């Protein structure tokens, strides 16, 4: 773990990375993603005398706590196939029956494999009062979210295109998603719960953050904290590009602050390797809470100064003393995405500028941009020049204008967009961004998208 941290710190320094900028030279991007890959190498880590965490069996972690007459399982992976492999690995350390299963929250990669841990004895299964609300109330847009989910996680990428998912390995077994889910039988009240299970003193603390139904688990004797997805080694995904309801950023920061106040000797994240040692674990949580709060506070100040989300997304940065922390590198979430989510979560889509109150229809705007450029041919030339100059974002934006023009070369615009997306992807060390660019490029190339590229 120390070697990994040192490697990441050296790479960040070498790349000269600024907060909110996840584009570097292609070789550096791959080096960074390959280094992050060590965070989820498959295996079981013993974090205390009676606590074992299985990492890399799927995207999330699962943990076994060994008690006097049984074991407790915290989170159960994505489906019974991956969960069964983790259960077999755990059996090297204990063959006691499972007395309880705990879900830290209701995301599918934490709840789908419960059946693989259950034998003849039926365990109690713990969830919060609001369990099941992880995705908010936006089920109406599930069809498009499903498509964007595939892109974000790179589920259809070839082996040569895959790197990882920022806080999880790529190429996981997903065909049995949720088939091992068992519903909670014990509800943890909003005030939390302190109890003893299989002789283990255990505390359930309600901690909304990535989801509204989240909680964190504290083992007071072992000084071990199970954080769920409110902490992992990456800047947090305060907004997921697959599409999510607003994740209450302030609540998230406060929940992580409460974890830090416990001064754990070990923090077990929902994804990535545990952090061991009181100073390291506590400092990581303090820094994480501060980072989230800083992005929130800066965004709110900018909002109240009349700035819009586009401007703020380029202005808000992590404090200097946090930028090179290995657990805050933007492998999964990004500061610009967080800023935009906070803005829309607090104020909605309108940025307060009357220019954007009723913007032009895209086809009309494209026509006027072409006129400004000196005609469709000139605009097309500028699009090609941007691509040749490796100004990939500008090439993307110009290709989106050309596609709307009646006299525009839509096939050329499509090809430029594909090349520009792959150019951006090669320079991305943020895994969701990288995966999305590549996935969309492949869909464009295969003809899976409509003529309007939706």
Automatic annotation (TrEMBL):
Signal sequence interval, chain numbering: 1-20
A Pfam family reported for this protein in Swiss-Prot or TrEMBL: Alkyl_sulf_dimr
Residue ranges of domain Metallo-beta-lactamase in the record: 59-271
Gene3D superfamilies: Alkyl sulfatase, dimerisation domain, Metallo-beta-lactamase domain
Gene Ontology MF, one: protein dimerization activity
Protein name: Metallo-beta-lactamase superfamily protein
Keyword Signal set for record: yes
Highest rank taxon of the organism: Bacteria
Gene Ontology BP annotations: dodecyl sulfate metabolic process
Source organism of the structure: Allorhodopirellula heiligendammensis
Region (Disordered): 158-185
Alphabetical keyword list: Signal
């Amino acid at each position: 773990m120390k070697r990994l941290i040192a490697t990441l710190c050296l790479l960040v320094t070498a790349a000269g990375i600024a907060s909110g900028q996840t584009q570097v030279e292609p070789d550096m991007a791959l080096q960074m993603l390959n280094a992050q890959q060590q965070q989820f190498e498959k295996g079981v880590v013993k974090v205390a005398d009676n606590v074992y965490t299985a990492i890399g069996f799927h995207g999330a972690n699962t943990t076994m706590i060994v008690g006097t007459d049984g074991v407790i399982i915290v989170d159960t992976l994505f489906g019974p196939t991956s969960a069964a492999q983790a259960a077999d690995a755990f059996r090297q350390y204990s063959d006691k029956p499972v007395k309880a299963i705990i879900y830290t929250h209701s995301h599918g990669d934490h709840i789908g494999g419960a059946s693989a841990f259950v034998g003849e004895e039926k365990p109690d299964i713990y969830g919060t009062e609001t369990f099941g609300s992880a995705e908010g109330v936006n089920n109406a847009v599930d069809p498009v979210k499903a498509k964007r989910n595939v892109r974000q996680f790179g589920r259809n990428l070839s082996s040569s295109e895959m790197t990882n998912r920022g806080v999880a390995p790529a190429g996981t077994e997903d065909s049995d998603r949720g088939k091992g889910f068992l519903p909670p039988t014990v509800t943890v009240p909003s005030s939390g719960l302190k109890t003893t299970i299989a002789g283990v003193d255990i505390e359930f603390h309600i901690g909304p953050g990535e989801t509204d139904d989240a909680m964190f688990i504290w083992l007071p004797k072992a000084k071990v904290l199970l954080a769920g997805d409110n902490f992992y080694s990456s800047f947090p995904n305060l907004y997921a590009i697959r599409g999510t309801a607003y994740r209450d950023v302030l609540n998230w920061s406060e929940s992580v602050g409460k974890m830090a106040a416990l001064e754990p000797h070990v923090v077990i994240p929902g994804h990535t390797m545990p952090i061991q040692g009181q100073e390291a674990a506590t400092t990581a949580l303090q820094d994480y809470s501060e980072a989230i709060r800083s992005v929130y506070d800066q965004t709110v100040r900018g909002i109240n100064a009349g700035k819009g989300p586009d401007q703020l997304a380029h202005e808000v940065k992590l404090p200097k003393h946090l930028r090179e922390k290995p657990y805050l590198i933007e492998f999964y979430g990004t500061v610009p995405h967080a800023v935009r989510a906070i803005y829309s979560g607090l104020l909605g889509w309108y940025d307060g500028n009357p220019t954007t109150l009723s913007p032009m229809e895209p086809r009309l705007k494209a026509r006027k941009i072409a006129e400004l450029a000196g005609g469709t041919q000139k605009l097309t030339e500028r699009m090609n020049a941007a691509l040749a100059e490796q100004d990939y974002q500008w090439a993307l934006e110009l290709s989106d204008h050309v596609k709307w023009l009646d006299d525009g070369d839509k096939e050329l615009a499509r090809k430029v967009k594909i090349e520009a997306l792959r150019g951006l992807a090669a320079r991305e060390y943020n895994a969701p961004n990288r995966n999305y660019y590549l996935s969309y490029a492949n869909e464009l190339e295969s003809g899976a998208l409509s003529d309007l590229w939706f």
